Amino acid sequence: MNRFQKTKKDKSILYRLVLPLVAFAIIIAIFLQGTGNMQQNSLHQQHEALENALRKSIVHSYATEGFYPPSLDFIKERYKLTYNQDLFYVDYQPRGQNIMPEITIIQRGGDARD
Question: pLDDT tens digits for the chain (114 residues)?
Fold first, then answer.
């Protein structure tokens, strides 16, 4: 055998096929994890924005009209509150004209694409 002659090394199937597939799978997994985190952050921000808008509308109603809104529909009509009803369920429990109502916002099953 000639020492100076370049020999072509026989790469096994491990290096030619399996390692690139494993690297590709890892990259896809990282990408999917990142998009999942972004979606969760977005849902959390939407939830907080809805809660803040509801509270501001309730307080504004009490300050300007002298009573808390009697229903969620009252807030939607009078203060033009809109939200994704397929994504969030709002439970609005009035306690009286001079007692702050109880608000519960529940994210419905599934995600924003449902």
Answer: 566 666 555 567 667 788 888 899 999 999 988 888 888 888 999 999 999 999 999 999 999 999 999 999 999 999 999 999 999 999 999 998 899 999 999 998 754 444
Residue 86 inside a domain? The answer is yes
Q: Which range of residues forms the domain containing residue 97?
A: 13-107
pTM of the model: 0.67
Residue 3 in any domain: the answer is no
Read off the tokens for 33.
């994890």
Residue 62's alpha-carbon distances to 22, 54, 71, 104, in angstroms, are 60, 12, 13, 19
Give the separation between CA 112 and CA 107, rounded to whole angstroms. Answer: 10
The tally of domains found in the chain comes to: 1
Encoded tokens for 99: 């007692």
Q: Is residue 46 domain-resident? A: yes
